[in-house]
């Protein structure tokens, strides 16, 4: 939802109706997971994607029908078995349900509220009561201070709250819940060659990137154009603070002493991921030093070291790939 929110608001402000598409059910190796969104304009303009190929083409065609007639929604069901996927030029199959719904300019306030609350870090959610018995879908907003939803529904949402979209049942309705969470931020401590590759791939994979180093020739905006922030440090001491579960720390400094200093700082935060580059010998020496400083084995158990997935990486680019693959795995909840 985040990827299409700005163009959606822009269109509604201009008085233009739009068609929103969402994968609300997905099974098997479908091209996109549940929650993938597409925005379709009457002039054929697109933002987002629900998978491309014939699937997306069918959505575009049906959206144009919704612009021309009185129907406000449509559910499209795709059985992408091996043969159908091959015919459509896809390498994957599975079962997908896409909900298309026409959104009118008078619904701007809902999406503007989502946008504003997301900027404030409040992590709002868009709720869609899925169509049933011929009744159209209903859009609802759930955010801090919103008391318009039934108490039981609010409690169920909060109980199941997660980063990824999910379905719940409430009062005989099936409700699709989309959290609008801010992107996970990758904090790269060290700005050398591995950091450069990691920053590029992290940004490409949907992470926000912060880079820091005590060498201005390495930590520069020109060198890291994708980064949200590039910091030149006087020292690595006290370079990390106020980190939470949506912050991932990658330690790739140029020396063991810096690594130990930064790792100690990271372990004092609530960072959702802490990874440190280096050999097992280096890791063991740093761990031993930190144990003497009062850290526990449980503390050190939070650290991914050697960092990255074991893919036989050798070059900085390959190492960056292995690191970002591990970050994606953690973000998806597939690894602690």
Describe the structure.
The chain has 336 residues and is an alpha/beta fold. It has two domains: 2-179, no CATH class; 185-331, 3-Layer(aba) Sandwich (Rossmann fold). It has ten helices and 15 strands. The strands form three sheets. A six-stranded parallel beta sheet has the order 12-11-10-13-14-15, with helices on both faces. A five-stranded antiparallel beta sheet has the order 3-2-1-5-4, sandwiched between helices. Strands 7-6-9-8 form a four-stranded antiparallel beta sheet, with helices on both faces. Helix 1 packs across helix 4, helix 6 packs across helix 10 and helix 7 packs across helix 8. The radius of gyration is 23 Å and the shape is elongated. The two termini are 26 Å apart. 34% of the residues are buried.
Concise description?
Helices cover 34% and strands 25% of the residues. It is α/β, with parallel strands linked by helices and 336 residues long.
N-to-C CA distance: 26 Å
Judged by helices, strands and strand pairing, the structural class is alpha/beta
Q: Topology as H/E string? A: HEEEHEHEHEEHEEEHEEEHEHHEH
Described by the principal axes of the CA atoms, the overall outline is: elongated
Uncertain parts: 85-91
Number of domains: 2
Helix content: 25-40%
Strand content: 25-35%
Taking all Cα atoms into account, the compactness measure Rg is 23 Å
Q: What's the topology here?
A:
Layout: H1 2-13, E1 18-27, E2 37-41, E3 46-48, H2 53-68, E4 73-80, H3 82-87, E5 94-103, H4 108-119, E6 125-129, E7 138-142, H5 151-160, E8 166-170, E9 173-179, E10 185-189, H6 193-204, E11 208-213, E12 229-232, E13 247-251, H7 256-267, E14 273-276, H8 280-292, H9 297-300, E15 303-304, H10 316-331
Helix pairs in contact: 1-4, 6-10, 7-8
């Amino acid at each position: 939802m985040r990827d299409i929110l700005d163009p959606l608001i822009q269109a509604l402000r201009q008085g233009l109706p739009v068609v929103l598409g969402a994968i609300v059910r997905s099974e098997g190796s479908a091209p996109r997971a549940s929650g993938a969104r597409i925005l379709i304009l009457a002039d054929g303009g697109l933002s987002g994607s629900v998978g491309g190929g014939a699937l997306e083409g069918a959505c575009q065609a049906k959206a144009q029908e919704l612009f021309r007639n009185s129907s406000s929604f449509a559910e499209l069901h795709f059985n992408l078995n091996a043969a159908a996927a091959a015919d459509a030029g896809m390498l994957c199959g599975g079962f997908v349900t896409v909900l298309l719904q026409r959104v009118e300019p008078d619904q701007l306030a809902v999406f503007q509220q989502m946008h504003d609350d997301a900027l404030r870090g409040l992590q709002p959610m868009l709720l869609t009561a899925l169509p049933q018995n011929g009744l159209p879908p209903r859009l609802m907003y759930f955010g801090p201070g919103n008391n318009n939803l039934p108490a039981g529904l609010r409690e169920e949402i909060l109980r199941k709250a997660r980063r990824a979209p999910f379905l719940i049942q409430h009062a005989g309705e099936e409700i699709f819940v989309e959290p609008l969470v801010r992107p996970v931020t990758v904090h790269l401590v060290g700005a050398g060659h591995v950091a450069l590759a990691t920053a590029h791939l992290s940004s490409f994979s949907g992470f926000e990137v912060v880079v820091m180093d005590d060498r201005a020739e390495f930590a520069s905006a020109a060198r890291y154009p994708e980064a949200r922030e590039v910091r030149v440090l006087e020292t690595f001491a006290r370079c990390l603070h106020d980190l939470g579960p949506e912050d991932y720390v990658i330690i790739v400094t140029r020396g063991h002493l810096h690594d130990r200093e930064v790792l100690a700082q990271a372990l004092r935060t609530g960072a959702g991921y802490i990874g440190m580059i280096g050999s097992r010998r280096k890791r063991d020496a740093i761990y031993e030093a930190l144990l003497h400083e009062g850290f526990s084995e449980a503390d050190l158990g939070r650290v991914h070291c050697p960092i990255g997935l074991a893919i036989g990486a050798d070059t900085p680019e390959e190492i960056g790939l292995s690191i970002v693959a591990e970050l994606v795995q953690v973000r998806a909840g597939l690894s602690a």
